[in-house]
Every structure is written in C-alpha cells, then in structure tokens.
Amino acid sequence: MNVAYTFSGFLVGLLVGVTGVGGGSLMTPLLVFLFGFKPAVAVGTDLLFAAITKTSGVWVHHTKHGSVDWKVVSWLALGSLPFAVATLLVLKHFMAVGKETTGVITFTLGVALLLTACSLLVRSVLIHRSAKLDADDDIVDDKDDEPENTGRFQRLQIPATVLVGAVLGVLVTLSSVGAGALGTVALLFLYPKMRTVKIVGTDLAHAIPLTAVAGLGHLSLGNVDLVLLGSLLIGSLPGIWIGSHLSVKIPERFLRPVLASLLLLIGLKFVLQ
User: Fold this and answer.
1) Which of 59, 102, 139, 236 is the most buried (most CB within 10 A)?
2) Which domain covers residue 227, as residue numbers?
3) How far apart are CA 41 and CA 15, in angstroms?
4) Count of structural domains within the chain
5) 58 alpha-carbon distance from chain centroid
6) Which 3-state string (H, E, C) describes 175-203?
C-alpha cells in the first residue's frame, strides 16, 4: 500500500461526497499528472475503482429510496455494454498489431473532461427545470415515473436512450469519465419529469455494470494496477462518507463552478498535448 495513493483517494472521495462529481473526472487526471501513470493504466484502474465504490450507493438507492428505474437502466445498458466490449476489442487489436493507443485515450480523456465541465454548469439548470415541472403537475399518479410518460422523445424514447448508452459506453471505456456527471445530465434531458433522486439512482445503477465490464476488460489488457486500486479504495471510502456529511454545510453553488473551471483546464491540456 502506498500512503500517497491512499491520501489521494481520500481527497477525491471527499470531493465526490461533497459535490457528487464522478470520481473518474478527478482521479484519472490526478493519477496521470501527479503520479505519472500511463493514461491507459489510470483509466483501467479508475474504472474498477468506480465499479466498487458505486455499489454501496446503488444498494441504498434501491432498497431505501426505491429510486432506480430498472427499465431505463436496461435500455442504457443495451447500448453501453456492447459498445464498451467493442471498444475493448478495438484496443486489444491495436495493441496486438503494435499500434500505440495512448494518444487516442489521452484525447478522449480530454474531450470527456471538457464535456463533464460543461455538464456541471448546466446540471443545476436542468434540475431546476425538472423540479418546476413536478411542481406544475396538479395530478400526480404512479404513471408519472414511467419512462413512456416522462420521456422527451415519446415513441423514439427507447432508441434515444439506447443511443445515449452507446455513446457513454465508448466514452467511459476510453476515458473512465462520463458515467456519473454526463450520464446524469443525459438522463435529465431525456426524462425531464423524472424525480431528481430517481435520475441519480438510475444513473448510478447503470454506471456499475458499465464500469465493471470496461474495468475488467482493461484488467485483461494489463491496464490495471491492483496495488494502486487497493490503496485508493482504503482512502476513498472514508473520504466519501465524510464528504457526504459535509455536503449539507458547503454551498454547492460555489464549488461546482470552481470544479468546472479546473476540469476545463485539465481537459484542454489533455486535448492539446
């Protein structure tokens, strides 16, 4: 175990607990720039890290809050999991023929960070609109939570959700970024009448199989550092717990713009290098 890795895991966990920002957008750049890991190893390790840390959150959402729409999860997974596997096969092929994949992963990571930064800025607006739509409903019944009623695209709702899943599958597999922040914003756009707690629970439930499949795929490619993974987990779990309790005391409207600006700078560095 490396104490520096554990402390970094604690800090990232703390920020995730306070802000709700996905760990990938914070952890992967940290591993690349501060500790000098190759982007592929940083991405692969962070994917398994995300799959493990998100599991307890889904359990709470499903058992305590009942806030997971499993139909939407299945539609997202129908697009994301096959495309994640296809992306892994492409990476494996490039590695087999001796082509360098670092450039593709680095560029994709930069794009994902830029998109995540933008999503942080628009997320609060979408949440506000979603809450306003709920308040404007005079009659609330059980059907309001069904995808067919809350969907923006009506008959095309299922294909649109599968397509979003496919994009997330490629993006997350190549960068480890997007399963949290981008997934939440996508669901807020696709299902404007769905309750926010259900958006979060559904996105979290979809992120687990996606990050697990992508992470195990990277493990088979040799892109996971197990010692690093264990050290990060030891630090992050208490960090997330403490951060979740601090979140009610720290104004979100101050932290999100700062984080968005930081991710924009990091994303630009990845894209331009």
Assistant:
1) 236
2) 3-272
3) 22
4) 1
5) 13
6) HCCCCCHHHHHHHHHHCCCCCHHHHHHHH
At 17 the three-state DSSP class reads: helix
Amino acid at 257: P
The answer for residues whose C-beta is within 8 angstroms of residue 165's C-beta and 6 or more apart is 75, 76, 77, 78, 79, 80, 83, 206
As a whole number of Å, the CA-based R_g of the chain is: 18
Phi-psi region of 37 (alpha: psi -120 to 50; beta: other; left: phi over 0): beta
Residue that the structure tokens 């197990």 belong to: 226
Separation in Å, CA 103 to CA 28, 29, 85, 108, 167 = 15, 15, 20, 8, 19
Q: Which amino acid is at 152?
A: R
pTM metric for this prediction: 0.83
**Residues 184, 76, 181, CA angle at the centre, nearest 5°?**
20
Q: What does each C-alpha distance from 56 to 122, 151, 160 come to in angstroms?
A: 27, 28, 29
Cβ within 8 Å of residue 80, ≥6 positions away? 165, 166, 168, 169, 172, 206, 210
Q: How many CA atoms lie within 13 A of 190 on its CB side?
A: 28
What whole-number distance in Å separates Cα of residue 71 and Cα of residue 81? 15
- The dihedrals phi and psi of 84, each to the nearest 5 degrees, come to -65, -45
> How many other C-beta atoms can be found within 10 angstroms of the C-beta atom of residue 5?
24
Sequence length of the chain is: 273
